[in-house]
Amino acid sequence: MPELPEVETIRRELAACIRGAKISQVEVLRSLVVGHPGSAKFAKTLESDEIEAVERQGKYLILCLRGGRKLVFHFRLSGSIVVTPDRTPQRFARVLFYLSDGRALQFIEPRVLGRIYLVLPGEKPKALTGLFRLGLEPVAPGFTTAHLCAVLAKRKARIKSLLLDQSIASGVGNIYSDEALFRARIRPTRRAHTLKRDEIARLVRTLKDVIREGIENLGTSVKDYYRTDGRTGNFQKMLRVYGREDEPCRLCGTTIKLLKLGNRGSRYCPHCQK
DNA sequence: CGGACAACCTGGTTGC
DNA sequence: TGCAACCAGGTTGTCC
Questions:
Q1: Protein CA A15 to sugar C1' C14 (Å)
Q2: Strand, coil or helix: what is A255?
Q3: Domain count, chain A
């Protein structure tokens, strides 16, 4: 599940290998993944454009093209990008971007939930409102205890649900929120406004830590996440609760529990997290 | 507006 | 072995 560290890893690897590359042709194999505009206009507009920079905002990857156009990717649950030396489509390839040097940038998305958007200068497509509503990333200097206290004080929802809200902590998903809550010793079901200042201070610290460690370890490969060369990340080896339900807590030995919050899984240690 | 939750989508896993 | 049912999960949209 590509969250901030996974998308950042993809961004860095792409910046190293495709900056300056020219797109010669675009082939849409599954038009559903083109979120804006229609797939015909999408492919036509991108022909013979050039990739000038590779950026990221939250979980969105942004290829900045000549002329101010932006190619925005969202990987949702299972999307990824691979750069291949030739044009042979990989398994689950949904859109192929042929580069003028013979390589191909392939958008891989088994579950077809991920999207690609082409944004012209000044355009704000309705399908991309999520991008324009992003809050601070946990690693941002402004993401402080005071900031998060102010945001959470007026919210009654469970802290876990709010950590997944991209307008509150952009880039955080299910893996890193479970890990940060475990390290901060906060139970995911806690109502946000009941959190004490020192608990929020711990959470700010652990959110920054897990995101930074995730990036340093090239992301978490639990299922569908691969890097642009097809290799996996390493942070899955360091997970303390995510994917460890029914296994012993690494700190106290208590069995890690899985509970359903809304319609997503949440893992925690009933002993360590109060 | 906040909060809860179904729907989107399909490959992989589980159960019979 | 075969096949149906179920599950994962980020985001959007709907309902209250």
A1: 40
A2: strand
A3: 2
